[in-house]
């Protein structure tokens, strides 16, 4: 068994090295890389119940008039652009993590959805599109 001399400062040095690595990771990227301009895809949730399929898309800082929604050949397309609120001076920012620029999301709709009857709303930066399902009444057949 080897005998190792205990150095109480070694734990502090180890912690300091870990903190330095952590800070290096946080500050090594250039600010220009962090402006996040370009094409972005806002996150979406899709869920359904017995009556409809609902698509919710996060669109912070956008109003309904800034978003184009269209259905063509069973494909729902959401399109728009998120712009900076004011002129951005790169030297004033340490980090910008939110995306800016044009976006487009497309979703293939199932044939059993009534896309011409969809309902659209926007609340707290979340665009909600509700697409009702085609109601199919049960058919009773009689034997002859």
TrEMBL record:
Signal peptide (UniProt feature, chain positions): none
Coiled-coil ranges from the UniProt annotation: none
CDD domains the UniProt entry points to: ACD_sHsps-like
Matching Gene3D superfamilies: 2.60.40.790
Pfam families on file: HSP20
Domain SHSP: residue ranges: 35-144
Family: Belongs to the small heat shock protein (HSP20) family.
PANTHER family named among the record's database cross-references: HEAT-SHOCK PROTEIN 20 FAMILY MEMBER
Name of the protein in its database record: Hsp20/alpha crystallin family protein
Species of the source: Geomesophilobacter sediminis
């Amino acid at each position: 068994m080897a005998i190792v001399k205990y150095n109480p400062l070694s734990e502090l040095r180890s912690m300091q090295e870990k903190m330095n690595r952590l800070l290096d990771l946080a500050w090594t990227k250039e600010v220009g890389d962090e402006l996040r301009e370009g094409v972005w895809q806002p996150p979406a949730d899709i869920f359904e119940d017995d009556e409809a399929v609902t698509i919710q898309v996060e669109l912070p800082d956008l109003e309904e008039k800034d978003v184009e929604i269209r259905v063509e050949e069973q494909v729902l397309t959401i399109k728009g652009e998120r712009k900076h609120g004011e002129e951005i001076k790169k030297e004033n920012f340490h980090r910008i993590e939110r995306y800016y620029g044009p976006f487009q999301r497309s979703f293939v709709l199932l044939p059993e959805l009534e896309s011409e009857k969809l309902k659209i709303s926007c609340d707290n930066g979340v665009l909600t599109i509700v697409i009702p399902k085609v109601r199919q009444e049960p058919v009773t057949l009689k034997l002859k």
